[in-house]
Automatic annotation (TrEMBL):
This is RQC P-site tRNA stabilizing factor. Key component of the ribosome quality control system (RQC), a ribosome-associated complex that mediates the extraction of incompletely synthesized nascent chains from stalled ribosomes and their subsequent degradation. RqcH recruits Ala-charged tRNA, and with RqcP directs the elongation of stalled nascent chains on 50S ribosomal subunits, leading to non-templated C-terminal alanine extensions (Ala tail). The Ala tail promotes nascent chain degradation. RqcP is associated with the translocation-like movement of the peptidyl-tRNA from the A-site into the P-site. The gene is rqcP. CDD domains: S4 (cd00165). One of its GO terms (biological process) is rescue of stalled ribosome. It comes from Dellaglioa algida DSM 15638.
């Protein structure tokens, strides 16, 4: 499954176009390698996503084409969530 579609289906990022933009800026890595939006995601991959002041690392647990909101949490497991202090 494509990275941008996985992020949308898992509801880590709400819109696929936003997931594509973030990936194309080099802010997402899969197993410590910079990933594009078209990169394939497989079960067991570690995704690291850099949001503004937060870095989220998740492990892919399952892949599904569609899910309901309640089931989307089963697609991944949060490994770490690190907040960085903004410079003022």
């Amino acid at each position: 499954m494509r990275l941008d579609k996985f992020l949308k289906v898992s509801r880590i990022i709400k819109r696929r176009t936003v997931a594509k933009e973030i990936a194309d800026k080099g802010r997402i890595t899969i197993n410590d390698k910079v990933a594009k939006s078209s990169t394939d995601v497989v079960v067991g991959d570690d995704l690291t996503i850099q949001f503004g002041n937060k870095t989220l690392t998740v492990k892919v647990m399952a892949l599904k084409e569609t899910t309901k909101k309640a089931e989307s949490i089963d697609l991944y497991e949060v490994v770490s969530e690190v907040y960085t202090e903004e410079s003022r």
